[in-house]
Amino acid sequence: MVRKAVIPAAGLGTRFLPATKAVPKEMLPIVDRPLLQYVVEEAVAAGITDILLVTRQGKELLEDHFDRAYELEARLQDKGKTSLLKSTRTLPGGVTLFSVRQGEPLGLGHAVLQARNFVGDEPFAVLLPDEVFLSERPCLGGLIETYRELGGPVVGVQEVPPEEVSRYGIVDGEEISPGLYRVRGLVEKPPVDAAPSRWAIIGRYIITPDIFPLLAGTRPGAGGEIQLTDGLAALASRRAVYAAVTEGRRFDAGNTLGFLEATLAFALARPDLRPGVLKIIEREIGALSEEAAPTSGERG
Q: Is residue 274 part of a domain?
């Protein structure tokens, strides 16, 4: 069973400054829930019961969000606002949240290495909170099923356009069945002309604990950081590692345009919001068209 998940959340969120000067990036809301909550809900829906947040100083809000707010709950209870009351209980029963601090910003591989004691000798999931999905079943759930079938580490991948290759870890793999690859190698953020494929790792992993000695011995790679991709490449040289094409729509909410796209898509996916959002879009397009229209003087 894969019952533990690690969520690295120690980044500075510089792409969203000044908003992230005082508020962690993972707490920025998509519609009415923070990014981090979508990721935690995906993990829980896939059967995860123990979740570790890898954070840093100044990110106490992440833990506070999943804590009980008894005074708020009491007020909502007194006012009969049961729907709002339910929404404040952000961590389902039977799920336990843990946290550990990454003392230095040494990269994703180093962040995952901080989970060594938490994981023990079990397989575990890693979910990056920048990535959110709209899909019929949890993205992570599909990877867990693949792990159960094959018994080896699995990374989720999706094909990206050539101009985006240099933003991701890229898989070199041999297709063994439709949508499933045996990993031959992995490269972190290669230039497009040196990339072995366009299959990008999209922030969802099932990893076995034998990754930890390899991460401990991994030297800084791309960006001068200890990369999880490099640790997985070393693991793939020792045992079978797989890449599975994930289902559903993926949104890279770690940049401004991706975040806006995710907000719009998640709002349109909600029946209670969709009609109003469509009206707003229509109104804004109309306003832009009017601004672009030439004046009578310009016509002639």
A: no
**What residues make up the domain containing 212?**
4-254
Q: Is residue 292 part of a domain?
A: no
Residue 168 lies in a domain: yes
Of 178, 133, 183, the closest CA to residue 155 belongs to 183
Residue-wise pLDDT for 88-109, tens only, equals 778 888 899 999 999 888 899 9
Question: Nearest Cα to 99, choosing from 156, 14, 36?
Answer: 36
Residue 135 has a pLDDT of 85
φ/ψ of 84, rounded to 5, equals: -65, -40
In whole angstroms, give the CA distance from residue 246 to residue 209: 23
Which has the closest alpha carbon to 232: 166, 172, 174, 159?
Answer: 172
Residue 110 · residue 215 · CB < 8 Å: yes
**What CATH code is carried by the domain that includes residue 15?**
3.90.550.10
Q: Identify the helix (H) or strand (E) that includes residue 119.
A: helix 116-119
Model confidence, pTM = 0.90
95 domain-assigned = yes
How many residues are present in the chain?
Answer: 300
d(CA 70, CA 29): 22
